[in-house]
User: Fold this.
Amino acid sequence: MSRECEFLVVGGGIAGVSCVESLVICRPNASVLLLTESSVVKSVTNLVPVARYLHKFDVREQDVSEMGASFETLVDQLDHINSSEHFIRTKAGVEVKYRYLCLCTGGTPKLFSGQVKDPLVIGIRDTDSVLQLQRKLATAKDIMILGNGGIASELAYELKEVNVHWVVKDSHISATFVDPGAAEFFHIAMNEVNEQDSSPVTAIKRMRYSEVLPKEQTSNHGAALGPDWHRTFDLSGAGERGAKRLPKIYYKSRVHSVQNLADNAGVIVNLEHEDGSFEQLTCDFIVSATGVLPNTHYTCDSPLKYSADGGISVDEMMRTNLVDVFAAGDVCTANWPAAMHWFQMRLWTQARQMGSMAGRSMAAASEGESVYQDFCFELFGHVTKLFGYPVVLLGRFNGQDLGRDYDILVRCTRNKEYIKFVLQNNRLRGAMLIGNSDLAETCENLILNGIDLEPYGNDILNPDIDIEDYFD
Ligand SMILES: Cc1cc2nc3c(=O)[nH]c(=O)nc-3n(C[C@H](O)[C@H](O)[C@H](O)COP(=O)(O)OP(=O)(O)OC[C@H]3O[C@@H](n4cnc5c(N)ncnc54)[C@H](O)[C@@H]3O)c2cc1C
Ligand SMILES: NC(=O)C1=CN([C@@H]2O[C@H](COP(=O)(O)OP(=O)(O)OC[C@H]3O[C@@H](n4cnc5c(N)ncnc54)[C@H](OP(=O)(O)O)[C@@H]3O)[C@@H](O)[C@H]2O)C=CC1
Assistant:
């Protein structure tokens, strides 16, 4: 069997669907085919601006048959690309001739492998994996979470009625998103979540980079789902009902070895702490929240160029090294000279932006036109929730790639907000807004305009001064 289309997009995640949506707008009369291995596809909905360039949105799951008539769909798996003859072959043996192809095949969990029997170490990516987690939790009393990024932070906060052993290699939690100060803010909030503090005290402090390096620990203590995915599943273990359990955190630790208990009853994990000491813990299973690997399980007549992290290397127009083949979302790695305030992180905001960009770029190529890269790639922005707090991350919010030559100005009100400005040569280079996103638009402007903030000194974060007024 064979088919033909002008634009073929592979993958029904946010990147693929955004790419198709953009193609349908730019080239309404062209034939567009979405090839997806799952009949459930994801799209962005309820887009709400948080600032001028920053949005929060929901991710909607839909059956591919409900996608409307403006493009065609095929539920099957990409197996082989023949880029020189412009066709692909699916697993079911269908050949699809295309003029332009976009690969949006996302990622898969990069599981920690430590000679553990498969069912005892799981990763979270899609609904099936959460159902697997749910089934395992139903009989579990102790689980270990390995990793220190988005998924580990969400699970450590959301899991109920189970003892959580959270193993992180850093000296603070949630290291992919926050600094040690913000981690401490979350840690205190987790402990005091039900305690009312009628008079929160606000502190403002300016520090040099070297002051915020993690303090050495003295004791020994690690198609994707949509936002708030954990709210739609009961993630309770088999422990005592209603008991408040805080995760036990093992800082600066790594898994040294793992031993399976008989009858898949669990695992004994031997942890190695940074000081060389060892500690043993027994758990029912391990959640490996240790990142994603780009999903490229298909063959190609000519080699695709990959980046060091395994992503398909793309330029600013989302083009791969193969003619008329584009890629977007988690599967690709941005290989263009990054703008001053932007860097890649595998997040759905970027999957959406890259998917739309790929769509525009393919449409322009088909008409012999050229387009500029979208402005969204000028400024990194991420809106999320961590430990129950709204979080906005802008620019180089953790001083990424700034070396040691920057200042940090922090305003912190216990259990209320943690606001951090990253300043270089008195110019705002990044911001972390936890618990209060009112400053998001002002921060966007300050970062993009590079205004000299020296005249304002520490007042820039004085809660009694409305800095939005200052810079209007
Ligand atoms: C638990 C979890 C929570 C997350 N929370 C957040 C968050 O709060 N905020 C945030 O910004 N990001 C979050 N992310 C990350 C975000 O979900 C991803 O960055 C984003 O969804 C990537 O979109 P994508 O379209 O590139 O890939 P995916 O969503 O992985 O979609 C890839 C699609 O391609 C299909 N596919 C793969 N191979 C083939 C093939 N050979 N043939 C046909 N189809 C194929 C897959 O079935 C899938 O439909 C989270 C991720 C996870 C796992
Ligand atoms: N709220 C949000 O925005 C959320 C976003 N996500 C996204 O979903 C994707 C998957 O999330 P997640 O799996 O948490 O990935 P992340 O990339 O966010 O975090 C992976 C973490 O695991 C650590 N790690 C990697 N390998 C090992 C290992 N062998 N042993 C111990 N630790 C290890 C990493 O450390 P190091 O960095 O030092 O390698 C990092 O701390 C990511 O793209 C993430 O950004 C997920 C959930 C929520």
The first helix runs from residue 14 to 26. The pocket of flavin-adenine dinucleotide (ligand 1) is lined by residues 10-16, 35-38, 42, 77-78, 104-107, 124-125, 150-151, 223-225, 227, 229, 295, 298, 329-330, 346-349, 351, 384 (CB under 6 Å). The helical segments are 14-26, 127-137, 150-158, 180-191, 348-366, 440-449, 467-470. The domain at 109-200+212-292 is CATH 3.50.50.60 (FAD/NAD(P)-binding domain).
